[in-house]
Amino acid sequence: MAGAVSTTFVTSGPPAIILRFVTGVTLARVYPTGMKMMAAWFDKGRGLAIGVLVGALTVGSASPHLIRGVGGIGQPDIVLYGTAALAGLGGLLVLAYEDGPNQPETAPFDLGALRRIVTDRGVVLANTGYFGHMWELYAVWTWIPVYLAASFATAGVANPEQLAALLAFGTIAIGGVGAWLVGSAADRWGRSTVTTLSMVISGSACLLAGVVYGSALVVVAPFVMIWGFFIVAYSAQFSAAVSELADESYVGSALTLQTAIGFLITIGSIQLIPVVQDAVGWQWAFVPLVVGPLVGSAVMLWLRRLPEAGSLTGGRG
């Protein structure tokens, strides 16, 4: 909603920056709370349930690109008003929520919980996997429209900006399907297996983006759709893992800490991409992001070999 306020009343930089800060703060109060709410309703099938939640987040994150693609090119007011309306609708729907049967008692504020979270080996490894994932995810989501527009312009495609906006929507939104399907797979095959496989695929795409850059639409479109499917498909499984590994009394705090640090990391990777682009061009701009999936895969394979893996997915790791 802050975006709509900014469009209507703000005419200079500082107030707009303040409103964007408020947007970030309020969003931070939605995501971890939503995961805890979902975990309260699902014990079995928790990976699928949180996967559906993250899938909804993913489609919502993609929606501004759709609004821009169908009529918002050069019209930022339309994009901001449309996005704010969708956010308002979501807020109204939440009013119908009721606590689930697995809702833990609200624990009092306890600084000691932070110490227990950061010294719990299983939680630390699951969080590190998530941090590697976040190093890649939001940098790709932020810059994929620009990469696509540059690629289409290089290939001589007509209307590259509009086509890039529509394909960026598809690239991000298809991750919602991925989160649902991979969530179901993780409940059957184990979280460590599914997250590792998905990170190998998405990390490889960071390198292959340079190979397909400037190619025909029939090459670029399937590539980025596969990348978009896997880059977020496993995101929910790190949260599900923490909900299984952390003590019940501070699951909410553990999820909040995971999310807060994860989003803080995205600041670095988002800012890094244009610096790399200035040096090597859009063709190879995503290469530094491969570090995240590499680290994430390594720690999840490590977790899989530890006794703590017995708490994941009913013992499936």
From TrEMBL:
SUPFAM superfamilies registered for this protein in UniProt: MFS general substrate transporter (SSF103473)
Major facilitator superfamily (MFS) profile domain sequence ranges: 122-317
Keywords, sorted A to Z: Membrane, Transmembrane, Transmembrane helix
PROSITE patterns per record: MFS
Record flagged with keyword Cell membrane: no
TM spans (from-to): 17-35, 47-66, 78-97, 137-157, 163-182, 194-213, 219-242, 254-276, 282-303
KW Membrane (keyword) present: yes
Coiled-coil portions: none
InterPro entries named among the record's database cross-references: MFS (IPR011701), MFS_dom (IPR020846), MFS_trans_sf (IPR036259)
A Pfam family assignment: MFS_1
Name assigned to this protein: MFS transporter
Origin species: Haloarcula argentinensis
